[in-house]
Amino acid sequence: MIEVKHVMKSFNGQQVLSDINHQFETGKVNLIIGQSGQGKSVLAKCIVGLYEVDEGQILFDGRNFTDMERFERSQIREEIGMLFQGVALFDSLTVEQNIMFPLTMFTNMTKGEMQKRVDFCLDRVNLSGRNKLFPAECSGGMQKRIGIARAIAMNPKYLFCDEPNSGLDPKTSIVIDGLIKDITAEYNMTTVVITHDMNSVIEIGQNILFIHQGKKWWSGDKDSILTTDNPEILSFVYASEFMKEIRSIMQEKRT
Amino acid sequence: MKLLQNIGKYTLMLTMVFTKPKKWKIFLSRLINELENIGISSLPIVALMSTFIGGVIALQTASSMSNPLLPKYTVGYITQSSTILEFSPTIISLILAGKVGSNVASEIGTMRVTEQIDALEIMGVNSLNHLVLPKIIAAILFFPVLIIFSMTLSMLGGWMALMITDLTTTETYVLGLRAFFNPFHITYALTKTVVFGFLIVSVSSFYGYYVKGGSINVGQASTQAVVSSSVAILVANLILTQLLLLS
Ligand SMILES: Nc1ncnc2c1ncn2[C@@H]1O[C@H](COP(=O)(O)OP(=O)(O)O)[C@@H](O)[C@H]1O
Ligand SMILES: [Mg+2]
Question: pTM for this structure?
Fold first, then answer.
């Protein structure tokens, strides 16, 4: 479980996050949703320590990450896997070397063991045999899956995915969502997914945090998000004509 | 003010760079990469510049040798001393500041704006140590090689120019090269070189590492890196000459 307590963050006087309190639960896919520019990525980067919080605390299973020294933090970071919004694969390394990188850096595995782990991770994201390609030779959807493979290489306890299916077609998105859901359950990880895609919310949302204007505006599960009357949620969830249609059908059914 | 702030930030950066690598094996393979990337790949431009400038130094000296009181071997002597003291260590370093500096700044800057540096940090890797230390060590190790290579080719270039124009004989030229040869000048030149190499790579890494924004900013950072490392070389040159030759 990751606890976020009273987190505040501003950049050059502009308040981006104000007083965020939330718990991300173990074994579940926790979602952070909200419109663009509302502070979702900043919150994720604050949690993992890429940005220092101005106030408040982050606890990883009770361990106070915020007060830790660099060295202690890097030990927790070895338990974190992250898929970045722009994937951030190392472009000078092949697919295989990307996934192997954390293994060579932090484990004492032999070459053979590492190779096995790489093949396993690639197989897990349905990319067996693509070991020798360079990131630039892979499609957007493949890159995201390679990013996930790299993120899970070290068997992380905590997995962060920043917009794992932005820029992907709906079908590929569903594959990625399903993948995230499955590995979370399989390894009992605490997974945090940032998204603004309603499809994903319905597919995988178990514990949802809605961020608006840098505040925790609403939280709940995917069933309650469809029935809430919170106006900002409504305008977010039912932004498209398609979703509006669904809402009216649902309401008809209920009455 | 901004300058002082940057120097402070630069110094802090160096304390993160000079820490013990997590895995020596990874460091070594990165170092070999960088020797290739920073060192070996600079050989052609160094060779080209050195041969031509060496030729020009020799010809210019020969053309102003109308005074019959000057011994014939003066051409060789001037070529040797200006090459060793100034041309190879300083001018070639300035040229390398352009090539290596922009390369280092844009590579690291691109990694910054595409979140690759964040990806390293999130794994718990000290990104400054991982990325910058091998580059600095490669420069410190290989710049002296480049400069000795440059000195050799510059004097060879001088000889070729003189032979083609038939202005002097090989014996006289070689006599000049060996005249008043002071081995300390080589020490002086190589000391300068090591400092310049360090400055180029560390200053350029600084501009790349702290870039914010997108590809336009990476371009600006790499220009800034070349300008600043050139200025750093000029200042360091003055200080080192004062310290090494005059005290
Ligand atoms: N490093 C930064 N410096 C200054 N402002 C930033 C920085 N990162 C994000 N912001 C600002 O914080 C706000 C939230 O950004 P972000 O978290 O990326 O939004 P999103 O919810 O789309 O992920 C935006 O207004 C953005 O301009
Ligand atoms: Mg974002």
Answer: 0.90
